[in-house]
Amino acid sequence: MSYTDEFRAFARRHGVSDDSITRIMWMVQPSVHLAILDPSEVGPDDLVVGHTGGLPELPDGVPWDGDVYVAGLDLGAIPEQPLDLGLPREGHLLFFTSSGYEDGDPAPVIHVPAGTATAVRPAPSGTYSGNPSDTWTTDVLERRVLVCRTTGTSWDVLDWLWDPDSDETEARMPDPDDPDVEDEVRPLLAAVVEYAERVGTVPFVHRTCGLRGVELNPPYYRADYGTDFLKKGEEAVVVCRNEPERFDELYAEALRDASEQDGGPWLNLLEFGEDAIFHTGDGEVGWLVNRDDLLAGRFDDVVQSYHC
Where does the source fall among the domains of life (predicted)? Predict the structure, then answer.
């Protein structure tokens, strides 16, 4: 059973209509919103899910060639949601970047399965041009703590159908009775409202840097989830009334058609504010994964994203 089948079965058990389920799965990505804290700031009720910086714990035989180690996530500590994140449920994900984090460059991500023997690896170093006095050492970022700030259902919306005004505890969706709400927003908005009423959980819907979800400021050339994508979504709503098993096929095809960058469709894997990690700049540094690779648990072809 695929993650979409599992979500449809869950929502159906709570009385959510198939039309609403299809619209939600078509236009949202599950997300985990993270905060980066100094160790002294972590409270007893904080849910720690990883760290940024420091030195990585790597298995024997896994090389560290000089990319900067950015973060490690404890996958078993990340809360589960009805709409699955698509990530392994055990082990750790380790994220690296080049010093320039150029958009589209390879961005190493290593999945360390649970139970794998690891050791802290010293930062790579060496000499330039064989000159023993001309040395280099890979930068080591400040070690800080990653805390999960949303422990319930959390979604990001593809495209910019709406941008809820939200704080870290409450998501404020557009008012369905507001005459200024655009027509193309209303079907999805009604679906989310129905889901909240039937399931009894108001999804946190707010785009920000974090795990999975949607890039905070996706560049225009990454993908286009506008009018054509919405139209295909409404066509899928009709098909899935009688053939819900076709959702994955229709969705994968629409994502491929929407993708404008080679190797796509690319989905957000992790994103941080540049200043939060490197203490410089005002962009977002992220890691993108092909959807098929994500569903298969493959992380050896992740690419960098950078937008400012």
Answer: Bacteria
Residue with tokens 């050492």: 137
Backbone angles phi, psi at 195, to 5 degrees: -60, -45
> Which residue is it, tokens 């035989």?
61
Predicted TM-score (pTM) of the model is: 0.94
37 pLDDT exceeds 70?
A: yes
Q: SS3 for 41?
A: helix
Q: Is 130 within the bounds of a domain?
A: no
Residue 57 exposed, middle or buried by CB count within 10 Å (0-12, 13-18, 19+): middle
User: pLDDT tier at 165 (50, 70, 90 boundaries)?
Assistant: low
| Direct distance between the N- and C-terminal alpha carbons of the chain, in angstroms, rounded to an integer | 39
Name the residue type at position 1: M
Contact in structure between 248 and 180 (CB atoms under 8 Å): no
Mean pLDDT across 14-43: 97
Rg (CA), the chain: 20
How many domains, in total, are found in the chain? 1
Handedness of CA 11, 88, 254, 186 (dihedral sign): positive
**Structural domain includes residue 135:** no
Expressed as residue numbers, the domain containing 99 is 3-121+140-307
If you write DSSP's letter for every residue of 104-132 in order, what string do you get? TSB--EEEE-TT--EEEPPPPEEESTT-T
CATH code, domain carrying 179: 2.30.320
Beta strands in 26-108 (DSSP E): 28-37, 47-52, 57-59, 68-74, 92-97
207-263 pLDDT per residue, tens: 888 999 999 988 888 899 989 999 999 999 999 999 999 999 999 999 999 998 888
133 inside domain: no
Please report, for residues 50, 115, 126, 150, the alpha-carbon distance to residue 59 in angstroms, rounded to integers and kept in the order given.
18, 10, 22, 31
Answer yes or no: is 127 within a domain: no
Q: What is the pLDDT of residues 64-102, one digit of tens each?
A: 988 999 999 999 999 999 999 999 999 999 999 987 889
